[in-house]
Amino acid sequence: MTPKTSNPVELPEWLYASSIAKQYSPQLTTDVTLKNDTPLPPAPPTTTTTTEATEARTAFTATLRSTAQTHETQLRERARILHDNASALERQEHALAGATAALAAQNAQLTKTADAARDALKEIGDVQNWAEVIERELLVVEETLRIDADAMQVHYLHACINMSYVVNRYAPIIH
Predict the structure, then answer these.
(1) Closest listed residue to residue 48, CA positions, set 31, 32, 24, 72
(2) How sure is the predictor about 87, in pLDDT bands with cuts at 50, 70 and 90?
(3) pTM over 0.70
(4) Which residue stretches belong to region Disordered (predicted)?
């Protein structure tokens, strides 16, 4: 019975970035199985195969390190940016908290000022109302005095007329 050889191992495409790995990938398979599925012991490595495998392994490792280094650099840059932005956001948060506290204090002060102005306007309204009441009362007193003055003039005139009548009537007698 003839031993059958399995197909070469399929390697991922990113491994083919190295020309050495691409050139020697068929030689990386050493599985040989018999018909009864018992594997044969691997053939002793030859110097050429060992050198080529070492070169392929070295190229593969270099490719992995290069890829890892590229991604690591990008990730480290992103982490640095995130860290810088986090500290900037923290500073802005503290500044915003301070501005909010100052705004709250200013709001309280403006509320007090508005309340004081409202009370002053209320007092002015009370004073104005009081002045209008006094003015109406003074108009009533003035009208009363005018009516009394007219009445007194009428009484005075009546008194004068009566006095004149008495004087005219009795003057000839008294003289």
Answers:
(1) 24
(2) confident
(3) no
(4) 33-54
